[in-house]
Amino acid sequence: MLTKSNSKIIGYGFIFSLCLEVMQFILMIGASDVTDIITNTLGVIIGVALYNLLLKLFKSNDKINKVITILASIATIGMILLLFLIVISNL
Description:
Layout lengths: L3 H24 L6 H25 L2 H29 L2
Helix pairs in contact: 1-2
């Protein structure tokens, strides 16, 4: 269910993505593309949906924040290890 606060979050995500693409166009850095705005906004929508799903499962914002922090920490450590292995393999 899309609440008013969820709509605001999605709107802010769209505006932020649009601003980044406009800046890329003005500064001539990279390639500006409408599909980037669409996929970034879709990512925000998926993120909001996953957060709402976690809220239904855990019933507490504190528990959700702990779960997200743990998962983000594990993903960060995994990415650092992956980058380290890539650098080592290229030596």
